[in-house]
């Protein structure tokens, strides 16, 4: 049996009365904040189209391990807020001032970008794409399509670099670092995934400012929640046939909701079959086993929260 998210949540919540701790609830993670650190608690919730969709068994444990892996992998590439994986579901991070921008990097024409392109849109977040691109094909260059970071229940909105600066979300100097760090992470992540037989299609990164005003990487990195991944060996055939390449991400949930129910975020969320949620769990587990040497799902054990620093 996996670590119980609810058990951990109850233990952490009980500790709030004992220390200066604030709870911030996100779409799929809950964050307990002390004056110096964040403790990101990974639930099994999954989201799509900016909505809560369902729970994927043991997802939180797997995502915590993946994000811990990537923050460690990139420690010499981009400054990070990561401190440790203090529990199988909890990442300890230095407390930052979040930059309210999601840095989305795209390498291929798919998803919402493809839908907008088919409708005739060519301008995206301050960049212009040429005519003649095909769905699932590689873009002429990596494309940054940043969005605002909405609260739970709110939709994220596309934004250009200048709009982000004019809105006071970042300074021109900070934007340059956000852009540079995001592209570096994407390139190096793409190279590693290629050695595993996967294509990093698109992903998002989030950053914050430390007490010195320096930009640091925070939140999840290159997980099936935040990224699209395709199996490399399926790509050329799928591109020629104009069908989706074999995916290793939560796109299977998005496709089910769209194709079977026409759901794209509005109205009542349709139920997702249990077998699809189990399939998604196996996808997450496969990625962790492929990237992290010797990774196995932990078993239930007594959970002590005192060492979290509360």
Task: Summarize the model shown.
This protein has helices at residues 5-15, 59-73, 111-118, 161-166, 172-195, 232-241, 251-261, 274-291; strands at 22-25, 29-33, 37-42, 45-48, 51-55, 82-87, 90-94, 97-98, 101-108, 123-124, 127-128, 138-144, 147-148, 198-209, 215-218, 227-231.
Verbal overview:
By secondary structure, the protein is α+β, with helices and mostly antiparallel strands. Helix 2 packs parallel to helix 8. It has a domain at 98-189 and 201-228: ATP-grasp fold, B domain (D-amino Acid Aminotransferase, Chain A, domain 1). The strands form 4 sheets. Strands 8, 9, 12, 13, 14, 15 and 16 form a 7-stranded antiparallel β-sheet that branches. A hairpin with a 3-residue loop joins strand 2 (29-33) and strand 3 (37-42). It is built from 8 helices and 16 strands. The model has no long low-confidence stretch (mean pLDDT 88). Helix content is 33%, strand content 25%.
Main attributes?
310 residues; alpha+beta; D-amino Acid Aminotransferase, Chain A, domain 1; seven-stranded antiparallel sheet; five-stranded antiparallel sheet; 16 strands; 25% strand
Distance between the termini: 27 Å
Order of helices and strands: HEEEEEHEEEEHEEEEHHEEEHHH
Number of helices: 8
Can you identify the CATH superfamily of the domain at 98-189 and 201-228?
Answer: ATP-grasp fold, B domain
- The CATH class of the domain at 98-189 and 201-228: Alpha Beta
Q: What's the mean pLDDT score?
A: 88
Radius of gyration: 19 Å
CATH topology of the domain at 98-189 and 201-228: D-amino Acid Aminotransferase, Chain A, domain 1
Strand-pairing-aware structural class: alpha+beta
Q: What characterizes the major β-sheet?
A: 7 strands, antiparallel
């Amino acid at each position: 049996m996996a670590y119980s998210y609810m058990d951990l949540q109850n233990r952490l919540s009980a500790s709030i009365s004992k220390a200066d701790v604030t709870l911030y609830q996100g779409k799929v993670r809950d964050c307990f904040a002390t004056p110096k650190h964040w403790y990101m608690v990974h639930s099994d919730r999954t989201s799509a189209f900016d909505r809560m969709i369902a729970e994927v068994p043991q997802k939180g444990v797997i995502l915590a391990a993946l994000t811990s892996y990537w923050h460690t992998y990139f420690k010499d590439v981009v400054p990070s807020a990561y401190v440790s994986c203090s529990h199988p579901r909890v990442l300890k991070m230095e407390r930052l001032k979040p930059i309210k921008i999601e840095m989305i990097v795209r390498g291929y024409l798919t998803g919402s970008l493809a839908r907008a392109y088919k409708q005739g849109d060519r301008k995206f977040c301050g960049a212009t794409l040429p005519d003649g691109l095909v769905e699932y094909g590689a873009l002429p260059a990596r494309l940054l399509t940043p969005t605002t970071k909405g609260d739970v229940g709110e939709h994220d909105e596309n934004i250009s670099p200048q709009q982000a600066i004019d809105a006071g979300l970042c300074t021109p100097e900070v934007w340059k670092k956000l852009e540079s760090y995001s592209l570096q992470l994407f390139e190096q992540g793409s190279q590693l995934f290629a050695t595993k037989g996967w294509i990093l299609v698109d992903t998002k990164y989030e950053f914050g400012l430390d007490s010195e005003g320096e930009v640091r990487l925070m939140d999840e990195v290159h997980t099936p929640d935040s990224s699209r991944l395709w199996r490399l060996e399926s790509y050329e055939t799928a591109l020629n046939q104009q069908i989706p390449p074999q995916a290793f991400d939560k796109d299977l949930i998005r496709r089910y909701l769209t194709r079977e129910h026409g759901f794209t975020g509005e109205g009542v969320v349709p139920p997702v079959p249990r077998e699809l949620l189990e399939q998604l769990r196996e996808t997450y587990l496969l990625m962790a086993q492929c990237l992290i040497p010797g990774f196995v799902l932990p078993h239930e054990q007594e959970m002590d929260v005192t060492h979290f620093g509360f």
